[in-house]
Design goal:
This protein is an alpha+beta fold. The chain is 47% helix and 20% strand. Helix 5 packs across helix 6. The N terminus is likely disordered.
């Protein structure tokens, strides 16, 4: 009887160790996939910015992200931002609500990257408005598109197509009066 009890105890012990190892392996794997890889250029840019603006030395690294959903457009828009031609961005209010995201805040900074995470610019939000799609102004469209050649026409086409494709994924359609979160920003770095 003692021998059987020892064997059962031994099997339980081995089973628990294997289960613990499996859980640890799963947690390690989950941590690897949830880790955010930061391109060195992001921290280098932020450190350069705070070296010239020491009042921000105790500020955490701001969010960093790219504009658009593909490599070519993300790089083009990052370059326009760095060159201070693009000074606005647009998002769907309904998507902020659907994904329970906070709206951008005036004064917050963001590091703009290309699709691969390479830093191009630091922006600071100057104003946030919610405007129906069909009431976007030519002036705002020019700030968002970074061009003065038919900016409103280009803005409407580009954003309608973008929003239509995105909304199709959740089986919704864009409307002329859909609310757009309009963020005007200033490129604060590079100077």
């Amino acid at each position: 009887m003692m021998k059987q009890t020892l064997i059962i105890f031994f099997l339980i012990l081995i089973s628990c160790k294997n289960e613990e190892k499996t859980q640890n392996d799963e947690q390690t794997e989950a941590n690897k996939t949830s880790e955010i890889v930061i391109d060195q250029s992001v921290t280098t840019m932020w450190n350069s910015y705070i070296a010239q603006n020491p009042e921000f030395k105790n500020t955490e690294l701001p969010e960093f992200d790219f504009f658009h959903n593909n490599k070519e457009d993300a790089k083009r828009l990052a370059e326009l931002t760095a060159n201070k031609k693009k000074q606005a961005s647009s998002g769907l209010l309904s998507l902020y609500k659907q994904y329970n995201l906070d709206l951008p805040k005036v004064g917050s900074k963001q590091i703009i990257t290309d699709f691969d995470g390479k830093a191009y610019a630091i922006i600071e939000n100057k104003s946030i408005d919610t405007i129906p799609f069909n009431q976007i102004s030519k002036e705002y469209a020019q700030l968002d598109m970074g061009t003065d050649s038919e900016p409103l026409k280009k803005w409407k086409k580009a954003h309608w197509d973008f929003f239509k494709n995105f909304l199709a994924e959740i089986e919704k359609e864009p409307t002329e009066d859909m609310k757009i979160v309009c963020v005007r920003f200033e490129t604060v770095w590079p100077k």
